[in-house]
Amino acid sequence: MRAYGGALICDSTTPSVEPSVEDKSALNTAMKRSVAKAAVELIQPGHR
Question: Which of 3, 19, 31, 32 suits a disulfide with 23, CB 3.0-4.6 Å?
Answer without folding.
Answer: 19
